Amino acid sequence: MSALHKMVGLVGAIMVAMVITVVSSSSTHDYGDALTKSILFFEGQRSGKLPSSQRMTWRKDSALHDGFEIGVDLVGGYYDAGDNVKFNFPMAFSTTMLAWSVLEFGKDMSSDLPHALDTIRWATDYFLKATSIPGFVFVQVGDPYGDHNCWERPEDMDTPRTPFAVNKQFPGSEVSAEIAAALAASSMVFRQIDRGYSARLLKRAKMVFDFADKYQGSYNDSLGPWVCPFYCDFSGYEDELIWGAAWLFKATKQINYWNYVLQNMPKLDSGNTNGVSWVGGSFAEFGWDSKHAGINVLVSKLSMSTISTESLPFISNADRFICTLLPESPTLSVSYSPGGLLFKPGGSNLQHATTLSFLLVVYARYLNQAKRAVHCGDVVASPARLVQLAKGQADYILGSNPLSMSYMVGYGEKFPQNIHHRGSSLPSLDQHPEPIDCKGGNDYLYSENPNPNLLIGAIVGGPDIKDAYVDSREDFVHSEPTTYINAPFVGVLAYFKSQSS
Ligand SMILES: *[C@@H]1O[C@H](CO)[C@@H](O)[C@H](O)[C@H]1NC(C)=O
């Protein structure tokens, strides 16, 4: 056992050496430029009536009648990725991460801060609409089968814009609670800037959380094939309910939300899914589906200010999570490419690199304040070590990698030219005012030419585990950008910008 541990430790040490070589041989990055672009990306994903302040001008108004067929205004929000569906579950998670980015690092964003706020407000304005009828939460707009069958500009869309809702009878606690988390986190962002708006967001967050908790169930079961296999809720809805309660506690300081977190947290460490019981494991997961590691990091920070959690499992679980990421840790459970990029199973791998890097820098700040280090067996990881690991990931994404390729469109010399994104790959309305129909877009989808419109700031799914990248529009696993890859990276870039100036 100990010999095995030593071997794993040795492999870890070699991997650290490699990571450090890659980082130190690279030139430094312009994190400020990357930050500006990471926020600009969201303008390319906007649905609805674009404001006069729109900077990404090749995009135009789209989906101006969403919800009208049932008498509800659902105009606005974001397309999730390279298609034109509004999937509220990942949209809400992206919004929570944008809000968390501003709450942690907003003071480092300087001239980018107003744009970051606009980015959040574009989502929260939409979520206020999606939750305006008590007892209903709209969770999606657009028939995903119709949409995915076509390669159309959002501005030309003629596929069904079907609105989907959950209600008391057909609940969706994961998506409702994530919307509550997004609204609660955003209410804190706007507290000093627009008190009235902030209060509206918080009031709605409470209402939507109550609905999510009172009528428990997964939108998987309520809406079936309309939401899954697109954004299936694999990890259950308990994590979103606790996450929503944790954000509401942070926003309100009301003890009932804290008690909710405490009482329900044990459910995340064991459970029963479809008759099969399971124990633990999910403490290492964080993304649009699983919130577990994020809850532990968020609550660990709360312990610094509001409430003492020393005897509670949050900090030890957050430590255990960090130990799954550090290459030198005996409990390492993620993989690294030879060039040093973090890998976890599932598509759009860079979502893991950006989301986990965010938690690394946030947790490092907590450790600094608490004057602590993380112990992974015999390995001691200082806060600086966590930051170094996150910086390696950020630098890799920005071009410090074996291909010297930036995975952010428009950043650096060499970046993806054929991203899997309908709007970016089809000529803009300015260039081609005539409509391009469902199958008319295929000429552009299968074309060898680079995309005509730069979706500046978009981070794609990224390279494979051997650091190779085929810049192919059809290879959506690697070439498609998503809002939840970018959102946590906004915070990471603001942090490294503040460290380099
Ligand atoms: C949702 O569906 C997926 C795919 O079928 C399944 O793995 C998952 O367990 C389901 N989630 C819930 C909460 O039922």
From TrEMBL:
The answer to whether UniProt assigns keyword Signal to this entry is: yes
Which E.C. number(s) belong to this protein?
A: 3.2.1.4
User: Its domain of life?
Assistant: Eukaryota
Catalysis performed (reactions): Endohydrolysis of (1->4)-beta-D-glucosidic linkages in cellulose, lichenin and cereal beta-D-glucans
Q: Which InterPro entries match?
A: 6-hairpin_glycosidase_sf (IPR008928), 6hp_glycosidase-like_sf (IPR012341), Glyco_hydro_9 (IPR001701), Glyco_hydro_9_Asp/Glu_AS (IPR033126), Glyco_hydro_9_His_AS (IPR018221)
* Keyword annotations: Carbohydrate metabolism, Cellulose degradation, Glycosidase, Hydrolase, Polysaccharide degradation, Signal
Q: Which GO terms describe its biological process?
A: cellulose catabolic process
The Glycoside hydrolase family domain is annotated at 31-493
**Active site feature:** 420, 471, 480
Q: Reply yes or no: does the keyword RNA-binding apply.
A: no
List the molecular function annotations (GO) for this entry.
Answer: cellulase activity
Q: Name one Pfam family in it.
A: Glyco_hydro_9
Signal peptide location: 1-25
Known SUPFAM superfamilies for this protein? Six-hairpin glycosidases
Q: Which family does it belong to?
A: Belongs to the glycosyl hydrolase 9 (cellulase E) family.
Tell me what this protein is called.
Endoglucanase
Which organism is this protein's natural source? Malus baccata
